[in-house]
Design a protein that fits this description.
Number of helices: 8
Shape: rod-shaped
Distance between the termini: 29 Å
Structural class: mainly alpha
Largest sheet: none
Number of strands: 0
Helix content: over 70%
Number of domains: 2
Order of helices and strands: HHHHHHHH
Radius of gyration: 36 Å
Length: about 230
Amino acid sequence: MSGLWCHIHRHGVVLVWLPVLLLFPLLNLSGEVLPAVGQVVLVLALAAAAVALVVTGRVAVLLPVLVVLIVLAAMQGEGWQTVWGVLAIVSPAVLRGWRLLVAILAATAGVAVSIAVIEGIGDAYLLSVGGTFLSGVTTTSFLRLVEAVEQLRRTREELARAAVAEERARMSRDLHDLLGHTLSVMVVKAEAVRRLAARDPEAAAAHAADIEEVGRAALADVRAAVDQMK
């Protein structure tokens, strides 16, 4: 259950930023009805692709689709360049190593080029470009931290199970060592009682008393061992 919650939490951390990043394009829709409808459909398709990619992890199919939709969205005009941030925050959830680095750099380069071409290089240019890069790096760091915490939790559970198994094995050895000799003595004396019962009742009674004494001592030892194990 904890692993499932961690899995859902990782998805939520990534996907919670989608409405924020896609809000700016929706605030900069075309003034004409048909183009505006097309732009809304494009934003919805982009969001659906991002969610599907994060949830299913089908990188080979969905990542190229997402990149194409981002490029198309970024070409719509001013205010649409934040869509490159979608690539930056989604990639850490599905990519590792150099592929992740390439994706974050591609998102950074995409926002840099699209802003320069469509809006021009203004005062907020470096802030927008740097923000896209940092969003990818920050998301990567947070997700890896969540994964590390989950790995530590699993390791702790495995160590706890191993400790329980080791304790059970120790208890088994202790009980074997404790009762093995005692039961052997009781068996030997019981055989002596059986042989002597008819011809030497006094000797048989002495052996029976020994059996009782050994049994009581063994019972006391078992109780003491159980008390130590609590």
